[in-house]
Structures are given as structure tokens and as C-alpha cells.
Amino acid sequence: MGTRFLLALCLVLLVLGFEVQGAQLPQQDEPPSPALLTQVQESLSSYWESAKAAAQKLYEKTYLPAVDEKLRDLYSKSTAAMSTYTGIFTDQVLSVLKGEE
């Protein structure tokens, strides 16, 4: 990383630190609001839940048993082939490292 980047990052963090310290002034008539981190977390959680619900609805809407069965079969065949080729590759690496005896 460049020196300019680190300097800019330090300045941004310094400004944000002063902003956070200045935001902690007590307010008289308003109830305390939740922390910014809590608000961000709740917002991201709600976005995630809505995206998950939309994906689930889309999956249920377009679910086809024949396609699901084909995908499961394709997955099982491809994992079997990968385990075979991984075994062959491992044997080749070990024979190269061990050398001919």
C-alpha cells in the first residue's frame, strides 16, 4: 500500500473518531436512540431476510422434480469423478515427491 493511501485512511479514521466522540453528547428531551452499529445490523438482517424469502418463493414457484433429480444425479457423478481425479493427482504428487526407488 502506498504512503498516500495510508495517510488518507488515517485521516478518514481520525475524522470518524472525532465525529463519534462529538455524537455522544447527552440529549435532554429525546429518548436514547439505538447505536449506529445496531441500526446497520438490523437493516442488513432485514435485507437478508427479504432476499432469502424472495429466493425461497422463486424456488418454490419454479420447482420441477425432474430437474431437481437431474441436478442431484449430476452432482453425485461430478463429486465421484472429482474424488477419483483427486486420488490420482495425490498419487502423482506423492510419487514425484518420494522419487523413484
TrEMBL record:
It is found in: Secreted. The keyword Cytoplasm does not apply. It comes from the Eukaryota. GO terms for biological process: lipid catabolic process; lipid transport; positive regulation of phospholipid catabolic process. InterPro entries: Apo-CII, ApoC-II_dom_sf. The keyword Chaperone does not apply. Residues 1-17 form the signal peptide. Proapolipoprotein C-II, the major form found in plasma undergoes proteolytic cleavage of its N-terminal hexapeptide to generate apolipoprotein C-II, which occurs as the minor form in plasma. Proapolipoprotein C-II is synthesized as a sialic acid containing glycoprotein which is subsequently desialylated prior to its proteolytic processing. One of its GO terms (molecular function) is phospholipase binding. Keywords: Chylomicron, Glycoprotein, HDL, LDL, Lipid degradation, Lipid metabolism, Lipid transport, Secreted, Sialic acid, Signal, Transport, VLDL. GO terms for cellular component: chylomicron; high-density lipoprotein particle; low-density lipoprotein particle; very-low-density lipoprotein particle. Belongs to the apolipoprotein C2 family. Component of chylomicrons, very low-density lipoproteins (VLDL), low-density lipoproteins (LDL), and high-density lipoproteins (HDL) in plasma. Plays an important role in lipoprotein metabolism as an activator of lipoprotein lipase. Both proapolipoprotein C-II and apolipoprotein C-II can activate lipoprotein lipase. This is Apolipoprotein C-II. The lineage of its organism: Eukaryota, Metazoa, Chordata, Craniata, Vertebrata.
